[in-house]
Design a protein that fits this description.
50% of the residues lie in helices and 10% in strands. It is mainly α. The protein has one domain.
Length: 236
C-alpha cells in the first residue's frame, strides 16, 4: 500500500512535466517516421501477469521482427541490450533514447496499477525462459511489480552480466516485500534523473547491491529488536 501511494503521488505531481513530453515526442515521431508512434509488446510485469506494454517507437517499424531474443544467438547475456549506435534506431529515436524518454508512456501503466514507478524492467516470456535454463530463481524478480527504472539503471545494463543484474533485481524485490521505504525509491528516482542529465556518473554494482542488502538486513535485525529504521541512501 505504501509503495502504491508513493507511485500515485509522485506520478500525479509530476504530470505537468511528463504529459507535455509525451505529447511533443508523439508528434515528433509521427512527423519524422509516421505511425505507429508507440512500440507495443507483451511483457511480464508482476508474478505471472503480463500486459501489453507501451513505449515510444525509437527504431524502424520492423525492428522487433529483425532483432529479438529468438533471432539473435545468445553469447554472454540472455538480456537483449542493443547499443545506441545500432542501425535499427531512427535518428530521432537515438535522441529519445539518450534523453531517456522511451519509457514515459508507461506512466499510464503506473496510474492504472499495472506497473510501479520504480521496479525491475518488464520482460518478454522468451527472455524469461532463456534465463530460467541457467538461473532457475529468475521468477523471484517478479515478486514485486516491474517499473520504469530501478537499481539496474543506476549501474547501467551494459556494465553488468546476467547474474549481477538478477542479484540486483531480486534484492530490490525482497526490499519491496519485506521492508519497503519510500526513501530508497526516492533515491533511485533522483539518481536516475541525475544520471540521465549527466550530472553524476553511474554507480558500481557493489554500491547499489550493498545499499539494498544493508536495508534488508537492517529490517531483519530490527524485526527481532522491534525498532526498525530504514538505512539511509548515500549522499553523493
Amino acid at each position: 500500500m505504501a509503495k502504491r501511494m508513493f507511485d500515485l503521488i509522485v506520478t500525479v505531481l509530476a504530470a505537468p512535466a511528463w504529459v507535455p513530453v509525451i505529447l511533443v515526442t508523439s508528434i515528433a515521431i509521427f512527423l519524422t517516421s509516421g505511425w505507429p508512434v508507440f512500440y507495443v509488446s507483451v511483457r511480464r510485469v508482476y508474478r505471472s501477469r503480463s500486459i501489453k506494454e507501451f513505449k515510444f517507437r525509437t527504431m524502424v517499424r520492423n525492428a522487433d521482427k529483425l532483432v529479438n531474443r529468438d533471432t539473435v544467438p545468445i553469447t554472454k547475456q540472455h538480456f537483449l541490450n542493443l547499443p545506441i549506435n545500432c542501425g535499427l534506431y531512427t535518428r530521432l529515436g537515438r535522441v529519445i533514447e539518450r534523453l531517456s524518454f522511451t519509457e514515459f508512456p508507461q506512466l499510464f501503466h503506473v496510474l492504472t496499477g499495472h506497473m510501479a514507478l520504480v521496479g525491475n524492467r518488464p520482460l518478454p516470456e522468451n527472455v524469461i525462459s532463456g534465463l530460467k535454463t541457467q538461473y532457475p530463481f529468475v521468477e523471484e524478480r517478479f515478486n514485486a511489480r516491474c517499473g520504469l527504472t530501478g537499481p539496474v539503471q543506476l549501474v547501467g545494463r551494459q556494465m553488468i552480466n546476467d547474474e549481477q543484474r538478477l542479484r540486483l533485481e531480486i534484492a530490490y524485490g525482497e526490499f519491496c516485500i519485506n521492508c519497503y521505504s519510500p526513501r530508497i525509491d526516492l533515491w533511485l528516482l533522483w539518481s536516475t534523473v541525475m544520471i540521465c542529465l549527466r550530472l553524476r556518473p553511474l554507480y558500481d554494482f557493489k554500491t547499489v547491491h550493498s545499499i539494498l542488502r544493508q536495508t534488508i538486513d537492517s529490517a531483519n535485525h530490527a524485526t527481532q529488536d522491534g525498532n526498525y529504521v530504514p538505512s539511509s541512501p548515500p549522499q553523493n
